[in-house]
Design goal:
The protein has helices at about 25, 40-50, 70-80, 110-120; strands spanning about 1-5, 30, 35, 55-60, 65-70, 100, 120-125, 130-135. The chain is α/β, with parallel strands linked by helices. A three-stranded antiparallel sheet has the order 2-8-7. The chain has a three-stranded mixed sheet with strand order 3-4-5. This is CBS domain-containing protein.
């Protein structure tokens, strides 16, 4: 698990809480948490039913491993070599959060900087044990 690192340089933010708030102040509920052994097809069905654009993916111990987006899963499903046996653990990539997480004490500005730098639309917020607490997303 890689927590978001603190940066000494300041970042300008459009979020009103960013100047002094932490991600715990602005995060959304984690939403559906799914096992990394779930197939892409089932994960897309869960996303549709939950009306969400991302899923928190957990390992067999219940620890958050990454966040995967609907766009990523759709791209995998339409790609060459796709079969209905492809699992979420097989599709983790750099454009997902890929092991990058925020602590609830991370400032909004720090999280926003990392998300913009890594081109992430959302970032999971986890506790010290790796359990998903919520998700922070960039506003469009």
């Amino acid at each position: 698990m890689t927590p978001v690192q603190t940066h000494s340089r300041s970042t300008r933010s459009t979020h009103p809480a960013a100047a002094r708030g932490t991600v715990a102040d602005v995060m959304h509920a984690a939403g559906p948490q799914v096992w990394d052994g779930m197939t892409v097809e089932v994960a897309l069905s869960v996303m549709t039913a939950a009306r969400t654009g991302h899923l928190v993916v957990c390992d067999e111990d219940g620890q958050c491993t990454h966040l995967v987006s609907r766009a990523r899963l759709t791209a995998v499903r339409t790609g060459l070599g796709y079969t209905d046996r492809v699992r979420l653990r097989d599709v983790a990539r750099a454009d997902d959060t890929g092991g990058l997480f925020a602590s609830p004490l991370t400032t909004v500005a720090e999280a926003e900087h990392v998300m913009r730098h890594r081109r992430l639309g959302a970032l999971p917020v986890v506790d010290e044990d790796g359990n998903a607490l919520g998700v922070i997303a960039l506003s469009r």
